[in-house]
From TrEMBL:
<keyword id="KW-0808">Transferase</keyword>
<dbReference type="InterPro" id="IPR029028">
    <property type="entry name" value="Alpha/beta_knot_MTases"/>
</dbReference>
<comment type="similarity">
    <text>Belongs to the class IV-like SAM-binding methyltransferase superfamily. RNA methyltransferase TrmH family.</text>
</comment>
<dbReference type="InterPro" id="IPR001537">
    <property type="entry name" value="SpoU_MeTrfase"/>
</dbReference>
<dbReference type="Pfam" id="PF08032">
    <property type="entry name" value="SpoU_sub_bind"/>
</dbReference>
<dbReference type="GO" id="GO:0005829">
    <property type="term" value="C:cytosol"/>
</dbReference>
<feature type="domain" description="RNA 2-O ribose methyltransferase substrate binding">
    <location>
        <begin position="8"/>
        <end position="83"/>
    </location>
</feature>
<protein>
    <submittedName>
        <fullName>TrmH family RNA methyltransferase</fullName>
    </submittedName>
</protein>
<dbReference type="GO" id="GO:0032259">
    <property type="term" value="P:methylation"/>
</dbReference>
<dbReference type="InterPro" id="IPR029064">
    <property type="entry name" value="Ribosomal_eL30-like_sf"/>
</dbReference>
<dbReference type="InterPro" id="IPR013123">
    <property type="entry name" value="SpoU_subst-bd"/>
</dbReference>
<dbReference type="GO" id="GO:0003723">
    <property type="term" value="F:RNA binding"/>
</dbReference>
<dbReference type="GO" id="GO:0006396">
    <property type="term" value="P:RNA processing"/>
</dbReference>
<keyword id="KW-0489">Methyltransferase</keyword>
<dbReference type="InterPro" id="IPR004441">
    <property type="entry name" value="rRNA_MeTrfase_TrmH"/>
</dbReference>
<dbReference type="Pfam" id="PF00588">
    <property type="entry name" value="SpoU_methylase"/>
</dbReference>
<dbReference type="GO" id="GO:0008173">
    <property type="term" value="F:RNA methyltransferase activity"/>
</dbReference>
Amino acid sequence: MNNEHSDFIIGRHPAVMALKSDQEINKVFIQAGLKSDAIAEIIKLAKEKRLVISNVPKTKLDQMTDHQNHQGVALAVAAYQYATIDDLFANAERQGEDPFFLILDELEDPHNLGSIIRTADAAGVHGIIIPRRRAVGLTSVVAKTSTGALEHVPVARVTNLVQTAKELQDRGVWLFGTDMKGKDYRQWDAHGAVALVIGNEGKGISSLLKKTCDEMLTIPMIGHVQSLNASVAAGLLIYQGFNSRHPLTD
């Protein structure tokens, strides 16, 4: 796994999830005077790990977290750990399932990325692939929006998405892109090794990556607004993948 920049994990639930995981944490910041069961659990977990706990005024936490809703808690974490492509395949193998991956093409909004990671965890996605450039990485906003799911879904960060897509194909993975013209996503059968490609919020999937895809899927719309938020569209497609892989039984 590869290390990236240091950051903060903020919010009570994400903090608890991080403290229960193997993630390396440097220091715990708690808002002075706060008392609750959640805060008590965070302090208990931090003490069990023999971490330094610092009680600081709310103004200090506001400054550290860029005035986000920190709920009185911030963990200074060592670099987020990005997975490798091999890690993603190993995750699927551990679960005895064919790989189900997401490729996110230059997603820019950390809230969208966090929401997609949360949905991916819920639907059993084995890993997510993001580009190193022109895209949001694993920031504290992403971690908070994922509400702890980031601890369970490996994320690989690669230099070239097209090359990575071809590598996946060489390893038996079928690539499904999203486009205005394509097969109705409700007909998508995601059995076997698959990767779902989600495009940028405004531009969609880049032309080279689109050409690499084996098949395109579309979400039919009959309303006046002919586009969906990236995380909402991803959620629909991810759960169609889940539905076909885990069909209802009588």
